[in-house]
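Moderator note: this is an archived Q&A kept for reference. The question asked for a predicted structure of one protein chain; the sequence and the answer are reproduced below.
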Amino acid sequence: VFHDNAYGSIKRKQLARFGRASGVDFGNPDFVQLAKAFNAQGYRPSRASELASILDNTLDSRKPSVIDVPVDYS
């Protein structure tokens, strides 16, 4: 999950074209906790350098997994 608390690409286009954005910001659930509620593994890297090892772990485990990746389009 690419987590940006918004429809980031739509927001960027609205800002570029109209100078403002409307209806694109919102809050998200805690995807790590949501994954655990469904008996899946949940991960949230705090740095980009952690992503490769998390991907390796999820592929090696062969269990359902959710990776919540925070992104910033600015």
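Archived answer notes: The first strand starts at residue 2 and ends at 3.
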